[in-house]
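Async update (no meeting this week)

Hi team, since we skipped the sync, here's where things stand on the single-chain job. The sequence we agreed to prioritize is pasted below, unchanged from the tracker. I ran it this morning and attached the output directly underneath so nobody has to dig for it. Comments welcome in thread, and please keep replies under the output.
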Amino acid sequence: MARITFNDQVYHCVNNESVLDCLTRHGVSIPSSCKSGVCQTCLMRGSKGKIPKDAQLDLKPSLVNQNYFFSCVCKPTQDINIHLPDEDINPKLIATVIQKNKLQPGILQLILQSQSPFNYQAGQFLNLTGANGITRSYSIASLPQANNQIELHIKKIASGNLSTWIFDELEIAQEVLISGPHGDCYYMTEHHRHQPLLLIGTGTGLAPLYGIIQDALYQKHTQAIHLFHGSRATTDLYLVDTLLALKKQHKNFNYTPCLSGSSSFSGATKGRADVIALQQHPKLKGWQVFLCGHPDMVNTMKKKSFLQGAALQAIHTDSFVHNHHVETPIKPN
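Output:
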């Protein structure tokens, strides 16, 4: 008889009983709908114990890699510890600020040095808590091989208490708290290496995409990599010179900066990044697609990418609101 630990309570699962049925029998309510592993409403995450493989069928490899599973079809054969999918199960770690660089007047590159090992995939995001007690989530733009150095791109928001504090008050050598990582929008060598990549981002949605691109190139990705980064104004386009230099260094990397507003500069394509990307790449069967930035763009492009041939499991998303992450542990803004 397997034991299920959930919210610090232990529940005994009878033979051939699913996690969902066990919790329901004990009066514990968790989100569910179809009870057949199709709707994904009952998604949960394991932190201890082995999750049966058949409870992870049809999940993206990146979610399987993080021990997510469908509770309605999970029939454990050994003791497991489980959590709701948006629960932050990682301890808070101390990180020291080692660099603050302005990438644009309103966009900051913040580089942290974690004082403890922080294991992540480029493109995931972390929770950052400042001295003012406010927590926000920010995408990781660096590679995990960077000796516990973590790069974040932060946009200053007029009403953003944490981003304003980071811009105006946070100093070099000062400490902050971080936890995570979270998210499944990242590159997986064993699944993605031999497929072309399409990456579309707006604003600081470039941060996770920049991490993914660096990781793919580091892992010697064999197929084409196409990045489309867009904004309304030139002040929200950044790392342009860095990305152009990367394009010169790697024949399989292509970069298209896009401007949809009245601003312009000679190197940018006029129009929205998502529209231009699909005009240039109308057939996406066999591609891996990464979408990061404004939720309207992400949601629209997810549908369009699927209609133009991309498999749902090959579409990876990270939605932002105001180009930074909100105060929730797993849904960024």
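Quick observations from my side:
Residues 206-218 form the longest helix (13 residues).
The mean pLDDT is 89.
Reply here if anything looks off.
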